[in-house]
Design brief:
- This protein has about 500 residues and is mainly alpha-helical.
- The protein has a 4-stranded antiparallel β-sheet with strand order 1-2-3-4.
- The two termini are about 35 Å apart.
Length: about 500
């Protein structure tokens, strides 16, 4: 154990399989099972749908190649936060950590927990978004707060996984490995069923035009209400927006860097985890979408009930028993995903506190050598994010429908998340110039072409989303900038 580890209390208890399971388990949640519906509606043809997932995969793989060099240079608790601190200084690092805590990390955990509860509702009608323990209380401005059985289930899941992770790394990684193996097998099962039992006469793969969206009845004005652009330019712009779902389904692979101080032989194991884990998930995601296209008509992918494409696919083959089995598999998937997000995310806030940029207690470990205070702080805020609701009134019936506010927050933060991704890749170039003689156990293959390609694609997506949704993109930047006064507060407090 190094002096730094003795000081921090963290121990290197994660092996190569454990690290890989964190990568894969954090990536595979509910996204692959539902986001293809919205992407299909936006882009209108099977070929474009697969291309959206493929381009998102390219961003993931090129990002993983760049991240591998940074992770092996600085295998420390906090991961990307540390990369930003070394490349850009503490202010930018804090803004990353702050946004992760405010909405990106905690909001994702909340969203996945709600997804778990929704699929539990398939088996028990007592778990539902409209079965209230505390009815919606209006907060004004189109927002309300409530506590339904669905929200309570999500909070219970967050509390359970937070508690298990405070009991030590061994228990946390046992849960992670078990559920990641199970859900990877379930996703592979969807792929196998689709490829072997699909390709019927009505499937999208055989009946839809692969690249001519208009031939499939697609219209940019229907795909994006209020959209005034037509023709190929509309297709190109909406293709960028169709990648939002695939990108979020593939996000969180950087989480393994957050536990850099706890990975054994990080020079080898972090690289293997990032490249093998990301590569495997990207391939599975592409094949899963091929399976959807082989099993369902394209219109049924677009209009899958509650966007549950995977459930619809299994129901098409096995009927209601297939749908129930798929719902159970998604519960396993979301359970394991939340465990990985909770386990790793807390290490960022721990690193911030060690830099005296967060509550001092958060920078400590318990007798099990894990940052329990950081886990609890993360859990409390995440539980709160399950409570607020959006409130929308129907103009004709005046009936109010409620949604979860974190979904809106995640929409706001999409562009900011892409900016952080771009900055992470750029940090590789910055540190090559800033610290040319630093030890690099792994050097990014294809440098500088790989990072430049990744930066260009991410940059184009940021511009595209800013053009299509300037209000939500701007709000995302404002959420990030709320960290500026908070940073100066912590700096002042640290200097006192």
């Amino acid at each position: 154990m190094t002096d730094r580890q003795k000081q921090s209390g963290l121990v290197r208890g994660l092996g190569p399989i454990d690290a890989t399971m964190i990568v894969m388990g954090s990536m595979i949640g509910s996204g692959i099972f539902i986001t293809s519906a919205e992407s299909a509606r936006l882009i209108g043809a099977p070929g474009w749908l697969l291309l959206a997932w493929a381009v998102a995969g390219v961003l993931t793989i090129t990002g993983a190649l760049c991240c591998s060099e940074l992770a092996t240079m600085m295998p420390r608790a906090g991961g990307v936060y540390v990369f930003f601190r070394e490349a850009y200084g503490p202010a930018m690092a804090f803004l990353y950590g702050w946004t992760l805590f405010l909405v990106i990390g905690t909001g994702t955990i909340a969203a996945v927990a709600i997804a778990f509860a929704k699929f539990l509702g398939v088996f028990s009608s007592t778990v539902a978004s409209d079965k209230y323990l505390v009815g919606p209380v209006s907060l004004g401005g189109g927002y309300a707060i409530s506590l339904s059985t669905e929200q309570l289930t999500a909070i219970a899941l967050i509390a359970l996984l937070t508690w298990t992770n405070t009991r030590g790394l061994r228990l946390g990684k046992l849960v992670q490995n078990t559920f990641t193996f199970a859900k990877t097998a379930a996703l592979a099962g969807v792929v196998i069923v689709g490829l072997l039992l699909g390709w019927n006469a009505t499937s999208a793969a055989r009946t839809s035009s692969w690249w001519d969206s208009w031939a499939n009845g697609w219209s940019p004005q229907i795909a994006q209400p209020g959209f005034t652009i037509a023709g190929d330019l509309a297709l190109i712009l909406l293709f960028g927006k169709s990648m939002v779902g695939p990108l979020f389904a593939q996000t969180a692979w950087t989480n393994v860097t957050f536990v850099g101080s706890e990975v054994r032989d990080p020079a080898k194991n972090l690289v293997r985890a990032l490249l093998f884990g990301c590569g495997t998930v990207v391939i599975l995601y592409l094949l899963a979408n091929v399976a959807y296209l082989a099993l369902l008509p394209f219109s049924e992918i677009q209009q899958a009930p509650q966007n549950r494409v995977a459930v619809a696919a299994m129901k098409a083959v096995f009927g209601n028993p297939g749908a129930m089995c798929m719902a159970a598999a998604i519960m396993v998937s979301t359970f394991g995903c939340d465990n990985g997000l909770i386990l790793s995310g807390a290490r960022v806030y721990y690193a911030m506190a060690r830099d005296r940029l967060f509550f001092t207690k958060v920078g400590t470990t318990n007798q099990y050598h894990v940052p329990a205070a950081a886990l609890i702080a993360q859990g409390i805020w995440t539980a709160f994010l399950t409570l607020p609701r959006t409130a929308t009134a129907n103009a004709a019936t005046h009936q109010i429908t409620y949604g979860n506010v974190y979904t809106q927050l995640l929409e706001y933060i999409i562009s900011a998340d892409l900016i952080f991704y771009l900055l992470m890749v750029t940090a590789l170039i910055v540190l090559r110039r800033k610290a040319p003689v630093a030890e690099r156990p792994y050097r990014t293959r294809g440098y500088p072409i790989v990072p430049i390609m990744s930066i260009l694609v991410a940059g184009l997506l940021i511009v595209d989303l800013a053009f299509l949704a300037p209000a939500t993109s701007g709000m995302g930047i404002l959420i990030v900038l709320t960290g500026v006064p908070v940073y100066f507060f912590w700096r002042k407090a640290a200097a006192a």
